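FAQ: What does a ligand-bound record look like?

Like this one, built around zinc ion:
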Amino acid sequence: MIVLVMVDGVRPDALDATPCPTFAAIRARGASTMQAQSVMPSVTLPCHMSIFHSVPPARHGITDNLYLPMARPVTGLVERLRHHGHRSAFIHNWEPLRDLNRPETLALSYYVEAPYTHQYDNEVAAQAARVIADGRHAFVFVYLGGVDVAGHAFGWMSPGYLEQLRHLDADLGTIVAALPADATLIVHADHGGHERTHGTASPDDMTIPWMAFGPGIRAGYTITEPVSLLDTAPTITHMLGIGPDAAWEGRAITEILI
Ligand SMILES: [Zn+2]
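The answer part, i.e. the structure of the complex:
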């Protein structure tokens, strides 16, 4: 089982600005970089289209948070896994992510609308823990949006943003605690942020944390090669013994493997 947890809007420097014991434990147990790169525009839906299709926005054509079908469709990660007989689950609290996967490719989809509170991500994390524990899916995607909401409300790196990051760290701990011993966890952000926004090419918006741990992944290892959002899907298929789709432009991050 591979679990991908998306922590929307988490800047790498924020992980050192406030206590984040779960993030720290993941980095200690696995391989990580605090220099991974988002795509332009560094906006949530374009970023997720790039994560799940391994092509930049210039190729998939989604340049804001309004979904449009691709003129020349690229096979997505979930569709490719389905083609190889693997079940995928999606658990999220940002509704536009429903458009990331073509019909009849997901085995489980769970969306919860939540008003912003410090408990924003609690239900998604609890549901993710249940889905992980039942062990019926080869790939589980979990999207936690509370830190991005706090960034827009209070400003990136503000006390309110960092407070929500501590809550996210606890929710991430719920997910980590549910992982079976043979599971691989990948955690990264889609973009960073500055002031009360994001979407620019500035390092504050473009630089993201990317980390993974599990059997076969180096422990306490700092990734030296460049990592992009485009590399997540090829890395996941590689770990499952499947090649990338021919249209994908990212590469498997094999450096993290023992
Ligand atoms: Zn945002």
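Follow-up question: can I read anything off the structure? Yes, for example: The chain has nine helices and eight strands.
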